[in-house]
Amino acid sequence: MKLKNVIKPKLEDIENIVAVDREVTSNNSRRGYIRKAVEEDRCIVVKNDNRIVGFLIFDTNFFNCSFISLIIVSPTARRKGYATSLIDYFVKIASTQKVFSSTNLSNKDMQKVFIANGFVQSGVVENLDEGDPEIIYFKSK
């Protein structure tokens, strides 16, 4: 698959990233989280026609491994390869050999994205969201 326009955002991109997140969450509750990730160089974005259509936030605090904390793609831009482009780019730049992520058991679409991108299930965490276990996924570089 051809890598789409994935880049590291600038501080002036924060409002556009928050706007994409708001399309999914209907609020601005993660504005501070997004700002901090951009400031700490832990965010990448994917663009279409110079417009941010998705983003990925990561860290390396998961047992000293890279962890994709959040992937959001605008609902109108889904199923066009943007999540795959974000994941591919991140795996290439990840500072560790192992990359982990997670999603709720109820999020079947995200589970399909992980599987399609070579991730395998690596465990389950109960009690984060009541009645909706978190599935941990893993991929080696």
From TrEMBL:
Domain of life: Bacteria
Listed CDD domains: NAT_SF
Protein known as: GNAT family N-acetyltransferase
GO molecular function per UniProt: acyltransferase activity, transferring groups other than amino-acyl groups
Methyltransferase is among the record's keywords: no
UniProt KW keywords: Transferase
Coiled-coil region: none
InterPro entries: Acyl_CoA_acyltransferase, GNAT_dom
Domain N-acetyltransferase: 1-141
Cross-referenced Pfam families: Acetyltransf_1
Organism whose genome encodes this protein: Oceanobacillus chungangensis
